[in-house]
UniProtKB/TrEMBL annotation:
This is Spermidine/putrescine import ATP-binding protein PotA. It comes from the Bacteria. It comes from Lentilactobacillus farraginis DSM 18382 = JCM 14108. GO terms for cellular component: ATP-binding cassette (ABC) transporter complex. The keyword RNA-binding does not apply. InterPro entries: AAA+_ATPase, ABC_SmlMolc_Importer, ABC_transporter-like_ATP-bd, ABC_transporter-like_CS, Mo/tungstate-bd_C_term_dom, P-loop_NTPase, PotA-like, PotA_ATP-bd. The keyword Transport applies. Residues 8-238 form the ABC transporter domain. Part of the ABC transporter complex PotABCD involved in spermidine/putrescine import. Responsible for energy coupling to the transport system. Gene3D superfamilies: 2.40.50.100, P-loop containing nucleotide triphosphate hydrolases. The gene is potA. Keywords: ATP-binding, Cell membrane, Membrane, Nucleotide-binding, Translocase, Transport.
């Protein structure tokens, strides 16, 4: 991305509401034509960040640059930025065409010129011929398309989208995800998208900024976030993961051994660790293997606790002696070990992700109430 033109830059952004620090030193850049998603749990400050970019909120300190120029003194309407909200924010008393053409009207474009542009926009969002309809004659998905057409008509440089699909049902949401992505590619407009839905973020984004409690955990393309999460939070938030907490107990020329509760595992020898270092090891469920006999390099006893059939895959829970539920995913047609069977878990050395634990990011799986396979599987 470094050869791309910078569109938005957040430098040392902080935002307090009273004494509460909502955003704590946020730094990232969005490039021209990029689809960047801010992803994070409810309350982590995504909307606040978006509102600062739009100009509806002022940072407590720090600087936002648009096109490499500071925007602190620019009111929202002078930034070439439009926003699409979750609740559409359309004008109920206006027709579809009047809603879509609103921005042009405000900019003083005469009616005769507005008509063709409105039609063009309606065509773009696949609602050609809907201009004379009233809003109450539209479905949720159609209303959101109108909101998008309205936001695009005056050719913003950046479109901010705050959970635009969360009011839609699952099927429509999936369809609109594809449509939005197609639209963004076609127009080449920079999109800054907010969601708390990791699957949506993975599907649509060029890069994802994972936020947690007002700070940036990691910003990277979806594959990197999944394969090389830098923190336990990211590993846990993006996709499913098993996280072990352990101590580097022995480093030899060929092996790096990590002692975990009730066992040990081996790391690839090139991992940059030192003896006695506390680490977290992340292993994705699809990489976990189960064997009735012990596999060299690993000693992690486990008992098969449950299987869930999920169509193309089987999801299994393996119970470790310390009570930790380990998630294992296998191909739907694969023969599964019987419930109650005892054995050992292991994986290919290259599949383990090492996270060097800092004091803020210690993840003790057994202590973490969220870390129950059954709870996680019951989700959406
Ligand atoms: N005007 C305000 N005054 C005081 N606190 C606020 C204000 N706006 C937001 N907050 C607080 O700031 C925090 C971050 O809110 P924000 O809406 O940015 O989170 P979010 O990540 O977008 O969450 P969600 O996904 O639930 O919308 C929340 O704790 C919220 O209560």
């Amino acid at each position: 991305m470094t050869d791309m033109k910078e569109m938005i830059r957040l430098s040392s952004i902080k935002k307090n509401y009273g004494d509460v620090k909502i955003i704590k030193d946020l730094n990232f850049t969005v490039y021209e034509g990029e689809f960047l998603t801010m992803l994070g749990p409810s309350g982590c400050g995504k909307t606040t960040t978006l509102r600062m970019i739009a100009g509806f909120e002022e940072p407590t300190s720090g600087e936002i640059m648009l096109n490499e120029k500071p925007v602190s003194n620019l009111p929202p309407y002078k930034r070439k930025i439009n926003t699409v909200f979750q609740n559409y924010a359309l004008f109920p008393h206006l027709t579809v065409a009047q809603n879509v053409g609103f921005g042009l009207k405000m900019a003083g474009v005469p009616k005769v010129k507005r008509g063709p542009q409105v039609e063009k926009m309606l065509k773009l969002v696949q609602l050609e011929g809907y201009g004379n309809r009233k809003l109450d004659q539209l479905s949720g998905g159609q209303k959101q398309r109108i909101a998008i057409a309205r936001a695009l008509i005056n050719h913003p440089q950046v479109l901010l989208l705050d959970e635009p699909l969360s009011a839609l049902d699952l099927k429509l949401r999936k369809q609109m995800q594809l449509e939005l992505k197609r639209l963004q590619r076609k127009l080449g407009i920079t999109f800054v998208y907010v969601t708390h839905d990791q699957e949506e973020a993975l599907m649509m984004s060029d890069r994802i900024a994972v936020m947690n409690k007002g700070h940036l955990e990691q910003i990277a393309d979806p594959r990197t976030l999944y394969e090389q999460p830098k923190t336990c939070f990211v590993a846990n938030f993006i996709g499913e993961s098993n996280i072990f907490y352990g101590k580097v107990s022995e480093i030899t020329k060929t092996d790096t051994k990590v002692t975990i509760e009730n066992g040990y595992l081996t790391l690839q020898s090139d991992k940059p660790v030192f003896e006695k270092q506390i680490v977290n090891i992340v292993i994705r469920p699809e990489k976990v293997k189960f064997s009735t006999t012990e596999v060299p390099g690993f000693h992690i006893p486990a008992t098969v606790a449950e299987h869930y059939y999920a169509g193309n895959v089987n999801k299994s829970v393996l119970r470790l002696p310390n009570g930790m539920a380990l998630k294992m995913t296998s191909a739907g047609d694969q023969k599964l070990p019987e419930i109650g069977k005892s054995g050992f878990v292991y994986w290919e050395l290259a599949d383990a992700i090492l996270i060097k634990t800092t004091s803020d990011d210690v993840f003790k799986a057994v202590d973490n109430p969220d870390f129950s396979m059954v709870n996680q599987m019951g989700g959406d």
